[in-house]
Amino acid sequence: MKNIFVKDFMNTGVLTVKPDTPTIDVAKILFVNDYNGIPVVNGQNELQGLITDYDFIEKGSAVHFSPLGNLLEELTIFRKNKEEIDKKIKALIASKAGNIMNKEPITLSPNNTLKEAADLFVGHHRVNPVPVVDGFNKVVGIVSRYDLIKLYVDPVFWMKLLAARNRDN
């Protein structure tokens, strides 16, 4: 069988956000859709960055949600100084997607192979999902680790791929 390409299994119905989307809205989109990440695009659908769940918990992030140990320490400080609570809440509300996105995300091309996509996930443990961009840096799809696992057990995918290959020959 010929190579399986990213374009054969990528998700094409990609939800995206703009750099000026409030961070709180990005968090809601990730939560409601059970996503690990979302591409940030400009008005021409060109990739500007990527926000993942990791960006929300990373130390130093503009909207850093502290690990439990630091949270207890911060609560002590906040109890003494209400202004600190107000500052943190205002910073969270004012923050935009462009403030926390990874501005140089790893990407795939529709013509990368399944093996290349798998190797990318193996080599970059924190990367998930990965935007798929065309030659003009426009988002045309997205691939996650789940998509690779799904290929092992999705007979519909294999039947569609085989039918498409037979049509092409």
TrEMBL record:
Keywords of this entry: CBS domain
CDD domains: CBS_pair_BON_assoc
Keyword Amino-acid biosynthesis: no
UniProt xrefs under PROSITE patterns: CBS
Pfam family, one: CBS
Every CBS domain range: 10-68, 101-161
Gene3D superfamilies: CBS-domain
Record has DNA damage as a keyword: no
PANTHER family: CBS DOMAIN-CONTAINING PROTEIN CBSX3, MITOCHONDRIAL, REGULATORY PROTEIN
Name of protein: CBS domain-containing protein
